[in-house]
Write a structure and sequence with these properties.
Helix content of chain A: over 70%
Structural class of chain A: mainly alpha
Helix content of chain B: over 70%
Shape of chain B: globular
CATH topology of chain B: MetI-like fold
Number of strands of chain B: 0
Oligomer: heterodimer
Largest sheet of chain A: none
CATH architecture of chain B: Orthogonal Bundle
Mean pLDDT of chain A: 85
Largest interface: A-B, 59 and 55 residues
CATH topology of the largest domain in chain A: MetI-like fold
Strand content of chain B: under 5%
Low-confidence stretches of chain B: none
CATH architecture of the largest domain in chain A: Orthogonal Bundle
Chain lengths: 244, 253
Amino acid sequence: MTRLVDTLALMAAIVALWVGLHAYAGDAAIASPLQTFAFAAELFSRASFWNHVGATMAAFAVALAIAAVAGVALGLVLGMRRFAGEVAEPILSSLYTLPKVTLYPIMLLIFGLGMSAKVAFGVIHGMIPVMLFTMAAVKNIQPVLLRTARVLRLSPAQTALTVLAPAVTPEIVTGLRVGFALTLLGVLIGEMFASQRGLGFLIINGIEVHDVRMMTTVTLIVVVFAVAANGLMLALDRRAHHFA
Amino acid sequence: MTRAGGIIWTRVALIAGVVGLVELLCRLGAIKPLTMIAPSQMAFALARMTAAGELTAPAAYTFTEVGAAFAVSVVAGGALGALVHAQPRLRRALEPLLASWYAVPFFVFYPLLVALFGLNALPLIAIGVIFATPAMMLSVLSGLDRVPRVMHKVARVHRLSHLLEVRLITLPSAAPHLFTGLKLAFAYSFIGIIAGEFILSGGGLGYGIAYAYESFENRTMYALVLFVLVIATGVNGALHMWDGRLARRRGRI
């Protein structure tokens, strides 16, 4: 109960801040909450809007699938092969801290405009954190677990299924959560340059033609989606850590 | 050769191998010069631009912004982290928001920030601060979480004042996490500001890259990309080494 009250209070504080910003900066910079909600309702009834949503979601789903599968697979390999892992880790964390926008022109030159560039951009944002978390999870398995598996004479497949997988799952879930957010960011930024479709395109187009209502509304939709999806994954994350 | 030496040399060989391969592919024409110029040409273009002084102004502009954003976000993130840590209810409410912070493309607030701060470097610095502060905050939170409870009891037994407790007990125990916070705050300030310049602003390294890309000046573009890459990797490597040294020193005590 107190949790609900706290969350509502936080939301009220955010809306109050928004109203304050609108009052200070004016209609030219940000739309008021009321205008935004009204415009969101209008957008939801337009078919063309759902085309943009579909474009973003398609690119996001492909990018997330690639980032998750490749990230977990490479992370597992690098975590198990200690030498390779130690060689790769500083390289990966450097790549992680690199402003990936600077690689954007290169991506465009390689992939051209459109879907594949968006996906590629999402993947380069999202894959590295998944890899780093998976690697750390495998490296930090308690040796006693593996020794127990040996004592019980488990086959490699049984060891992987009953010992390794449950031990590394919580950390991998955390990695996927971080990867989820960054992949979404990557796809949206990708759409801002490489595309004529998608929510990122609607935002940048709103900025360029000075459609403040469009910009604010689509931003709000993206933020709500990101926070909601993340809240859901945070709950999953807690459960995974709880059962581990 | 020691194991640590082997790791470092393997890493160097790996990077050299990749660079060499790209160089070879470019020279053989498998990668078209319109897509990517050879790494040696990038380095050459960068050296030429540095010697001609073309790099000085945008680099100074960007580094001033990054420095300002880094300083503000470390102070603000530290203070907010300590404040939120003292208020568990506030923390529970804020956590989902902080966890999804990095999924929000903050560049879209640039027009709003221009309206707030005017058309100068401040809106970009604000983007850097918005990007970097939560990373610092989260690090402070996990650092404060990991101060052993017995240490607080020790402080009480010795009747330390609040200030002394923070200086002698809290800060040293939380130090590793605070250091991680500093690393992340730098990385995110850098990412936020370069990206902001790239997308929106009219100055600095990020803008230089975008401008060169749009006017098909591949050499300039790749030289600038290389420069940003070298700076990010260099600072990251230096912090990594410093962190390792601090960890070893803690291990000795």
